[in-house]
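Practice problem. Given the sequence and the SMILES for zinc ion, write out the predicted structure.
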Amino acid sequence: MERQPLFIGDKLNASKCNDCGNVRFPWMDYCYKCQSTNISEYLVGPKGKLMSYTISYSKPYVGKIKPPYAYAVARFPTDNGHIDVFGAIDSQEPFDDIKINGSVKLIPDKLLVKFKMGDD
Ligand SMILES: [Zn+2]
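Answer key:
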């Protein structure tokens, strides 16, 4: 499988199964639900909702983020439901801007998925 970029423009480069409609991120060239290889590019975002987060005090294994930083799961709508995506929140101590159920917006990056709080 050829490695695909995380982002196309300001949207996530997800894949969609043309047989069962399953949307997956990161992009994958087959469907893990029905094993189809009939896959299309499907762009998700850039606006979503923060579902949960945690603060990490250890050095990340990828990207230029200094600890402490917030890891999060954000939910993005698709045309047949939603997908939940793991990433880092662009925020700093004391992390007062982070609100569960708050709006997030994607920040395009080559190495990792990043969100910022708010939808501006
Ligand atoms: Zn499928």
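Check your answer against the key. Residues 17, 19-20, 22, 31, 33-34, 36 surround zinc ion (CB under 6 Å).
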